[in-house]
Amino acid sequence: MSxxxxxxxxxxxxxxxxxxxxxxxxxxxxxxxxxxxxxxIGTGLAGASAAASLAELGYxxxxxxxxxxxxxxxxxxxxxxxxxxxxYQNDGDSIYRLFYDTIKGGDYRAREANVHRLSxxxxxxxxxxxxxxxxxxxxxxxxxxxxxFGGTQxxxxxxxxxQTGQQLLLGAYSALQRQVGMGTVxxxxxxxxxxxxxxxxxxxxxxxxxxxxxxxxxxxxHAVLICSGGYGNVFYLSTxxxxxxxxxxxxxxxxxxxxxNPCYTQIxxxxxxxxxxxxxxxxxxxESLRNDGRIWVPKKKDDNxxxxxxPEDERDYYLERRYPAFGNLVxxxxxxxxxxxxxxxxYGVGTSKMAVYLDYAAAIIRYGKGEANKRSIHSPSDEEIxxxxxxxxKEKYGNLFDMYKQITGEDPxxxxxxxxPAVHYTMGGLWVDYNLMTTIPGLYSLGEANFSDHGANRxxxxxxxxxxxxxxxxxxxxxxxxxxxxxxxxxxxxxxxxFVAAEKNVQETIDKLMSxxxxxxxxxxxKKLGKIMWDKCGMARNEKGLKEAIVEIQALRKxxxxxxxVTGDADEFNPELEKAGRVADFLELGELMCVDALNRNESxxxxxxxxxxxxxxxxxxxxxxYAYVAAWEYKGDSQFELHKEELVYENIKIAQRSYK
Length: 660
Hints:
The protein is 39% helix and 14% strand. With 660 residues, it is an alpha+beta fold. Among the domains are: 268-423, Succinate dehydrogenase/fumarate reductase flavoprotein, catalytic domain (Flavocytochrome C3, Chain A, domain 1); 496-646, Up-down Bundle (Methane Monooxygenase Hydroxylase, Chain G, domain 1). The strands form five sheets. Strands 5-2-1-9-17 form a five-stranded parallel β-sheet, sandwiched between helices. Strand 7 (202-210) and strand 8 form a beta hairpin. Keywords: Cell membrane, Electron transport, FAD, Flavoprotein, Membrane, Oxidoreductase, Transport.
């Protein structure tokens, strides 16, 4: 097993690494910054914050997104909140506790130094966003409000109703547009990155496709930042926007950037259940709903009574029963598996029997009584309690309740929501070192596109934190250590042979896709791939299923390249061609995910191998053999070589994960 990985973690005490690093990192003087060009792929929280911050520092920035506006990046879909160790509640929070919760939540499969840095900068993110005008919820006295989230016993999640991601993105977008207005950022909307251009072993630009005209373009940059999000859509049905894809990261991978932990997929426990074959995506109900909602199933198998007809003593609040210390606030992987176990055992609810209840009745009464006290209403009627309780819930979670009603036709204020786990976030991604650089010099990866901070399971409210930490507070420092050595590199002409060859390669792939003229749509293949992935590399995996999946994906890929039908032309606006390119990448990534899952003979976080579980059905890690990041090198034509980054824990005692 070769290892070519150097994580470049600074020496010294954990709590001082980042401070010391920032004080000693090489800098680029302002005059030199003006002649250095940086390309940013993606305009979500990571991309927009990085582009705005780097332009503010004086670099020339070019930013690309496939949407018609950066505001449409999938970061807007994040609902519940963003973590920060401010300890406003005085409930025992600290930078160390946020660090510890994140490492434990990731099932001891994350890199200590990166996670500690994330915890350190978390407080600054909130200050930055408040300064930008992000309308975080506030307490009566004007202080920022916090709510609790899964995997923690403190309240540290800042939020803006159920649309935190959208509000944070508007903050980053404002900062980005300010730089666009000043001419320091060139914004290219409706463009998709098709290839990384390498010159003398370094990333020096990209080939992009103008999605309106279909024209291919060459763009030079001294460095390239991939901020293109996660790859959950490999499963077809997921909480991701339909446009979310792996193409930018995968093209980088095929050029030499190692892919870290591809099998680590997060299944979110609170999604609206699948309603039929017509669906193309799933809708998330924020994890923040588990704060006040209680999750239960009937104690009787195949109980067909309506939820409100089932008396209290015939309900199984299974999370509270199994995990008394954390109750409904166990981390996502644990809550998801517990829901699957109950449904598989015959206790599921709804027509499909693949759902559990999320019930707000008790919370409405509790809040109603609290309001009555506040308003000095002594001995209020049940009806008054209900009315006041619903008002409080509406203020905290109203838009989520409205969304549920719109989609299901049921009123969650009156009947419990039905929820079931679904594919959400991907903890795997491009392998990066402490500087966020991939194994390709000059190519960086930020936010969900990299693997770095969450181990085998992401704690809720950490995605927004990581995206903004990487963009606002990490990359502005770390990129300097690379660019300080590039100030003599003049802009390379896009007529250089490397650019010509890269564009030719992209054109050949497009021509090939257009020329197949098969009989089946792109969606046909995507759905088939999704089913294989969900059934055999989803919430539970086993050796037999994974081996079958690899063979099935290889056959499906072969069929795709001989029988896919892409309508329209290449030199025009063509969403079918866009989709075809992305599904072609998913058909390769899916196989690597199964290879990675088959190679990891343990259960940890979101990776649950059925052969490796405790007697109580919990994940059973193998720290002796698998305490490493799996970084895969592309060797061409379905061949991947494994490199290991050993994980060393000097500040945390590795323990069996328990939320009981």
